Amino acid sequence: MVSLSSVSVSLSVSQLSGLYTSPQLPRFGNRSSLIITSSSANRSKDAASSEASRKELFDRYGLDLNDYLPKPPSKRKKRMENGKEVGREKQVVEYEPKPPRTTHKLLQVLGGKAKRKKLLSPVGMDVRPMMEVVKGSAFDILQGRELTVFDDDPTCYHLDKDFKSADEAAGGCPASLRPGRWLDLFSGTGSVGIEALSRGCAEVHFVEMDPWVVSNILQPNLEWTGFQDASVIHTVRVENFLGRAQKFLGTDASFDYVSVTPPYMEVDYGLLMDQLSSSSLVGEDTFIVVEYPLGTNMLDSCGCLLKITDRRFGRTNLAIYGPKWAVKKRK
Question: What's the DSSP call for residue 23?
């Protein structure tokens, strides 16, 4: 309730000098006829008589005192200030804790020194390793072997012994890969890089941004397969790694092989491949293995490298880029 003692009413009419001298004042006929201000000038007067006079004056001119007093804050403002709705108890939103992340052994090394060794991978879809049929096909191509995949069942395939592939230009043979350096981007479980080490690669650099995956999956897999001494792990975003390659690797930054297996919905393949093509990590003789989803438009070249092959495995596609001399030899 608002006390009238804090409000004084003054009339500024040119013909009148007193407040209550004329009862014939117009009702807002002149904008300057009535001015209501907040003041403490009448605090010394008798509270009862002053309040009665003001009430009589407002009644005489048909005014409502509440129209000239500061309005109380809105309900929305009160809710924002108090953190709760008026007349209701404060709502507490309870968040269920995320279940702990767990692992299982579903992947395995397909060939080489660590063949058939099981690898850890996380339960769920937060990390999606390359399918084994896709991984096997990629390495068979790089080693000069070719897989024929049946369209009706992409999990069934056999070795085409009569195929003479120019992918042998990669320097591989049916028994092993050409010794070299491999860069495993979006490595996750490390399945691709470990496969490369098992098949003859001399060194692999793994780039994985998730510390939990690195400490609970990638490192244990490297220890289990015995390749930790030939491995370097970079716990950083791929975009940052590509942009600051010399900081991480020095001047000798180019690789013989690069694998790109990103989470499909979290990357822009156009930007990623453009950044990779202009990076010092890719040399004139580099082979790039890219896994991408169906419906993605992949260019026929990546910098100075040309697309050697592009295969489909259900909803997954596999593209391999290589040097020009590899493509010429294929004809």
Answer: T
Please tell me the predicted confidence (pLDDT) of residue 218: 96
The token duo for 201 is: 């690669």
Q: Beta strand 231-234 with 203-207: parallel, antiparallel or unpaired? A: parallel
d(CA 167, CA 145): 8
Residues 261, 266, 272, 276, Cα dihedral to 10°: -40
Alpha carbon dihedral 37, 39, 45, 49, in 10-degree steps, equals 30
Report the percent of the chain where pLDDT is more than 90. Answer: 45
CA–CA gap between residue 4 and residue 216 (Å, rounded): 73
The residues, any chain, with a CB within 8 Å of residue 317's CB and separated by 6 or more, are: 291, 292, 293, 294, 296, 298, 310, 311
* 120-174 per-position pLDDT tens digit: 999 876 667 888 999 999 999 998 755 444 344 433 333 343 334 434 445 445 5
CA distance 246 to 152: 46
The token duo for 221 is 């897999």
Determine if residue 190 is left, alpha or beta; phi over 0 gives left, psi from -120 to 50 gives alpha, anything else beta.
Answer: left
